[in-house]
Write a structure and sequence with these properties.
343 residues; 58% helix; alpha+beta; Alpha-Beta Plaits; four-stranded antiparallel beta sheet
C-alpha cells in the first residue's frame, strides 16, 4: 500500500508546489496518537489534567480538532518521506495547507516550499585555472621596522598606538637590543627577531594573495552562471550581516538601537543596504554547494567532530547543532576551494 501520492510542480523563484494525497487507511492510523495528545492537554473540572477517562475526554474533543491533529501528525512524518524519496533539495520552512479533511476520506494537502535552484555550472576548473595567483610584494625593511616599533610600544606602554593616535606617554621607548629581542621569549638576537618578523609578514601576504585569488575565481565562475537566488537564502545572508554589525557595535559598548538612533537609520533600511552584498555572498555559497555536490566533496565525521569540539570549547554557550552545521559548511567550502585551486 502506497503511503501517499504527490505531484510536484515547479514555480518561479526556486519554489515548488506539492499536491498530495494520503489514503484514509494510512492517516487514520494517527487517530490514537492525536487523541492521546489532545486528551492529555484537556482540562475539565473534577479531573486532574492528563487523567481524564477516554470516554469522557472523547465527548469534549471536537471531531474537526481531532481530524486536524491526526492530519498534522501524519504529515509530520510523510512530508520528510516525500522530500527524501523525490530527492528534493528543500530549504527553509514549508507552507502547508490541508485542502480536504474528512473521516473515511483521503487526506488532501498542498505544500509550497523553496528549493535550492538548479545551477548549470560552467567549466569551473578551466575558469579557475585561468585565474593567476600573482606575486606578493617583497617585504621591505620599513615594514619590519614598523612591527619592531609596535613591539617597542607594547613593551613600554602595554599597548600599540593606532596610526595617527597622539603619544601621551612620557617614558621613552626601549632600545632595540638583543636583550629586547630575548624579552619576547623566542629570539636570541635582533637579527633573529627581524627574520621571524619578515617570515610572518611574508606568510600574511601569501594568505592575502590566496584569498584574493579565491575571490577572483568565484567571481569568474559566478559571472558564467545564471540562477535565481531564493528569497529565504538572500534574507538569511542579510540577517548574518546584521548580526555581525550588531556584534561589532556590542564590542564597542553600544547597542544596535543606539547605533540606529545616532545614524538616523532603521533596521529595515540597513537590510536594504545589505541586499547587493548579501546576494553576492548567497551566489558564492550556492555555487560552492553545487560544485561540492558535483565533486562529491563531503568532510568526514571525524573532521566535523574535531572542529566542532574545538569551537564549542572556545564558545561554551554555542548551540551544538548549529555549530556542527557551520563546521560542516566551512569544511566543505574549504575542500571545494582547494579543488578549484588545483590542490
Amino acid at each position: 500500500m502506497n503511503t501517499y501520492t504527490a505531484t510536484i510542480t515547479d514555480l518561479p523563484d526556486a519554489q515548488i508546489s506539492i499536491a498530495g494525497e494520503v489514503s484514509w487507511e494510512v492517516w487514520s492510523q494517527y487517530e490514537k496518537k492525536a487523541f492521546d495528545h489532545l486528551a492529555g492537554h484537556l482540562e475539565l473540572a473534577g479531573f486532574r489534567k492528563g487523567k481524564i477517562p477516554d470516554d469522557i475526554a472523547k465527548s469534549h474533543i471536537p471531531e474537526a480538532l481531532l481530524l486536524n491533529d491526526m492530519a498534522e501528525k501524519a504529515l509530520q512524518e510523510i512530508y520528510p518521506t516525500i522530500v527524501k524519496e523525490k530527492n528534493l533539495d528543500v530549504i527553509g520552512r514549508p507552507e502547508l495547507s490541508i485542502t480536504k479533511l474528512a473521516r473515511n476520506n483521503a487526506l488532501e494537502f498542498t505544500v509550497r516550499a523553496t528549493v535550492l535552484p538548479t545551477i548549470a555550472l560552467p567549466d569551473y576548473k578551466k575558469i579557475a585555472a585561468g585565474v593567476e595567483m600573482g606575486n606578493p610584494e617583497a617585504v621591505t625593511e620599513e615594514a619590519i621596522d614598523k612591527v619592531v616599533g609596535e613591539l617597542q610600544q607594547l613593551r613600554a606602554y602595554g599597548h600599540v598606538h593606532d596610526q595617527g593616535q597622539e603619544h601621551t606617554h612620557e617614558e621613552p621607548l626601549p632600545e632595540v637590543t638583543d636583550e629586547f629581542a630575548k624579552s619576547f621569549g623566542e629570539f636570541e638576537s635582533v637579527a633573529q627577531m627581524r627574520e621571524k618578523i619578515k617570515e610572518n609578514i611574508t606568510r600574511e601576504k601569501d594568505h592575502e594573495m590566496k584569498d584574493k585569488r579565491r575571490i577572483a575565481i568565484m567571481e569568474a565562475i559566478i559571472e558564467k552562471t545564471d540562477f535565481p537566488v531564493p528569497a529565504i537564502v538572500l534574507h538569511s545572508e542579510q540577517e548574518k550581516m546584521l548580526a555581525q554589525i550588531e556584534a561589532d557595535i556590542a564590542r564597542a559598548g553600544f547597542t544596535l538601537d543606539d547605533y540606529l538612533k545616532q545614524s538616523n537609520k532603521t533596521k529595515e533600511g540597513m537590510m536594504d543596504e545589505f541586499k547587493p552584498e548579501a546576494e553576492k555572498r548567497a551566489r558564492v555559497q550556492l555555487v560552492l554547494n553545487a560544485i561540492s555536490r558535483q565533486e562529491n566533496i563531503v568532510p568526514s565525521d571525524e573532521e566535523v567532530k574535531m572542529e566542532t569540539e574545538r569551537l564549542m570549547a572556545m564558545y561554551p554557550g554555542a548551540d551544538q547543532a548549529r555549530t556542527e552545521a557551520y563546521v560542516d559548511m566551512m569544511l566543505t567550502n574549504e575542500k571545494t576551494l582547494a579543488v578549484l585551486e588545483g590542490k
